[in-house]
């Protein structure tokens, strides 16, 4: 069972629209079927139609995780202390309806916690700790660079340098959920260092595949920094400044 509290931005919206926004990988038919079976409640009242919801409403959903998330849980390594999961695109690592929540529910272990993060629309390996001792050890190893992280991305265009270490400055505007990049330091901007190596390039279709290593870990650093040098990640819809 999942419990959601309606935020103000969804006030006077249709119930199904709200649910799809929280569970983008679930089909609308899943929710209509749940309504027919009276498996959705609003403020503890069973509803059978696609009703209008309001700020502060409590919505309880009695739908199995496999239908809500519609993800293949790909565990590539597991022992008594560690889990390594190949995260698919479209799911957050933490928060409501996240990969962490799905793992805790599926494996019946509320102590599972991620040791690092990947963006919602990034696919790749995520390391999870199954207990607090493992979490402390792994977080320290990531911090001390004893564990290396490599990112692979496809970008627009052909880069002049086949390998480089990029430096710039990034400012995160939390109110606008936007980041800004400058070549020179300004008030509020923090240094970012991004290293890349060209693995493959296709001049006919004008794209390159890069291996990227982060020397700093800022919000959306790879996406914003590569866009800043004129080689945005293909498929990235976010507007960078």
Summarize the structure.
The protein has 241 residues and is an alpha+beta fold.
Sheet bearing the most strands, described? 5 strands, antiparallel
Sequence of strands across the biggest β-sheet: 9-13-12-10-11
Q: Unreliable runs, pLDDT <50, ≥5 residues?
A: none
Overall pLDDT score: 91
Percentage of residues in helical conformation: 10-25%
CATH class division of the largest domain: Alpha Beta
- Report the CATH superfamily of the largest domain: Pseudouridine synthase
* Domain count: 3
Query: What structural category arises from helix and sheet content?
Result: alpha+beta
Secondary structure tally, helices: 6
Q: Oligomeric status of the shown chains? A: single chain
- CATH fold description of the largest domain: Pseudouridine synthase
What is the strand and helix layout of this fold?
Layout: E1 2-5, H1 15-22, H2 28-36, E2 40-42, E3 45-46, E4 58-61, H3 65-69, E5 75-78, E6 82-87, H4 99-107, E7 113-114, E8 124-129, H5 132-143, E9 151-156, E10 163-173, E11 178-182, E12 190-202, E13 207-214, H6 221-228
Antiparallel strand pairs: 1-4, 2-3, 2-4, 5-6, 6-8, 7-8, 9-13, 10-11, 10-12, 12-13
Describe this structure in words.
The chain has helices at residues 15-22, 28-36, 65-69, 99-107, 132-143, 221-228; strands at residues 2-5, 40-42, 45-46, 58-61, 75-78, 82-87, 113-114, 124-129, 151-156, 163-173, 178-182, 190-202, 207-214. It has 241 residues and is an alpha+beta fold. The protein has three domains: 2-68, Structural Genomics Hypothetical 15.5 Kd Protein In mrcA-pckA Intergenic Region, Chain A; 71-143, Pseudouridine synthase (2-Layer Sandwich), CATH 3.30.2350.10; 151-228, Pseudouridine synthase (2-Layer Sandwich), CATH 3.30.2350.10. The strands form three sheets. It has a five-stranded antiparallel β-sheet. The protein has a four-stranded antiparallel β-sheet with strand order 1-4-2-3. The chain is globular and about 60 Å long. The protein starts with a strand and ends in a 13-residue tail after the last helix. The mean pLDDT is 91.
């Amino acid at each position: 069972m999942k419990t959601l509290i309606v935020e103000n931005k969804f006030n006077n919206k249709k119930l199904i629209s709200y649910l799809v926004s929280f569970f983008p990988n679930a089909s609308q038919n899943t929710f209509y079927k749940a309504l027919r079976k009276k498996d959705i409640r609003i403020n503890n009242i069973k509803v059978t139609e696609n009703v209008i919801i309001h700020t502060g409403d409590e919505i309880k959903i009695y739908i199995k995780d496999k239908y809500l998330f519609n993800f293949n849980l790909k565990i590539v390594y597991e022992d008594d202390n560690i889990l390594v999961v190949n995260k698919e695109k479209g799911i957050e690592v933490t928060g409501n309806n996240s990969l962490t929540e799905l793992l805790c529910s599926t494996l019946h272990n509320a102590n599972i916690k991620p040791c690092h993060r990947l963006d919602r629309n990034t696919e790749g390996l995520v390391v999870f700790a199954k207990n607090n001792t493992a979490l402390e050890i792994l977080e320290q190893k990531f911090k001390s660079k004893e564990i290396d992280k490599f990112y692979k991305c496809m970008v627009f265009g052909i880069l002049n340098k086949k390998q480089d270490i990029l430096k710039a400055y990034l400012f995160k505007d939390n109110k606008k959920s936007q980041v800004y990049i400058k070549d020179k330091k300004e008030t509020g901007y923090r240094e970012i260092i991004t290293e890349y190596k060209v693995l493959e390039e296709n001049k006919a279709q004008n794209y390159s595949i890069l291996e990227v290593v982060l020397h700093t870990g800022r919000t959306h650093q790879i996406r914003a920094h590569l866009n800043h040098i004129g080689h945005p990640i293909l498929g990235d819809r976010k507007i960078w400044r």
